[in-house]
């Protein structure tokens, strides 16, 4: 049975490789934030760095990206890149699933794992339907009327569906209704999206008591409290957004 306590199990942080994992991305949220949430939930200690570039913690110039490609570390010429257990993992969804399976956050049977995949994909669909990346005019960074409409439509579609799942839980973890005990990577994904969306609309869960209960339980988890209070949680002031966007575009030469 999976651990249901708020303390992350020590075994989740045990690494099978002597080399400390590294995570490569820009100094922002984007597709990497779900990976950071998962690493926190699994109690994995890691550094943010650019392999082969000394004293650089984040991508900031085109030659960083070109060097990663030249090294053969990017299977699809994309980041985030997680170097762990001798692997160079790209594609954020694949990274998240690897961590979930390694650290026991997918249930205890093939059927439970399949249902976790179903719910997790639904949460990611919701995230994608809400709009473009956080620093690119989402979050609390002056989204347009069209972006706000998209955000509202996505919440109207997916929140009732997720509520239908959440009300079956009495433990505060979303997959209990499917027989999965304790924290799963679905909860981790839910925590990330709610953390972002509630910034835009603080009363978002007012009519969704099941989700509100799950969210309250997740917010009380030690791993999440520690992560949100750490410098690995990417936050920005409004004046930092445009320079960040320029850095991303410069790195990708667009």
UniProtKB/TrEMBL annotation:
Any one biological process term the GO annotation gives: glutathione metabolic process
Pfam families: GST_C_3, GST_N
Sequence ranges assigned to domain GST C-terminal in this UniProt record: 109-238
InterPro entries for this protein: Glutathione-S-Trfase_C-like, Glutathione-S-Trfase_C_sf, Glutathione_S-Trfase, Glutathione_S-Trfase_N, GST_C, GST_superfamily, Thioredoxin-like_sf
GST N-terminal domain boundaries: 19-107
Example of a GO MF term: glutathione transferase activity
Domain of life, source organism: Eukaryota
PANTHER family: GLUTATHIONE S-TRANSFERASE (PTHR11571), GLUTATHIONE TRANSFERASE (PTHR11571:SF230)
Name this polypeptide is given: Glutathione transferase
């Amino acid at each position: 049975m999976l651990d249901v306590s708020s303390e992350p199990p020590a075994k989740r942080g045990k690494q099978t490789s002597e080399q400390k994992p590294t995570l490569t991305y820009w100094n922002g949220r984007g597709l990497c934030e779900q990976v950071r949430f998962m690493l926190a939930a699994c109690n994995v200690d890691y550094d943010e760095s650019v392999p082969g570039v000394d004293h650089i913690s984040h991508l900031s110039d085109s030659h960083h990206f070109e060097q990663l490609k030249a090294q053969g570390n990017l299977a699809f010429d994309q980041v985030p890149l997680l170097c762990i257990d001798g692997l160079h993992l790209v594609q954020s969804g694949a990274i998240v699933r690897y961590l979930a399976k390694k650290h026991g956050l997918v249930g205890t049977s093939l059927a439970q794992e399949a249902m976790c995949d179903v719910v997790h994909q639904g949460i990611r669909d919701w995230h994608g339907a809400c709009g473009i990346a956080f620093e690119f005019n989402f979050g609390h960074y002056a989204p347009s009327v069209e972006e706000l409409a998209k955000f509202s439509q996505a919440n109207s579609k997916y929140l009732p569906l997720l509520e239908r799942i959440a009300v079956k839980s009495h433990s505060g973890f979303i997959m209990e209704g499917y027989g999965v005990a304790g924290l799963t990577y679905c909860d981790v994904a839910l925590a990330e999206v709610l953390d972002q969306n509630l910034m835009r609309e603080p009363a978002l869960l007012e009519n969704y008591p099941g989700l509100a209960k799950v969210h309250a339980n997740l917010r009380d988890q030690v791993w999440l409290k520690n992560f949100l209070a750490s410098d690995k949680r990417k936050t920005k002031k409004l004046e930092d957004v445009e320079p960040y966007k320029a850095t991303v575009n410069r790195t990708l030469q667009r």
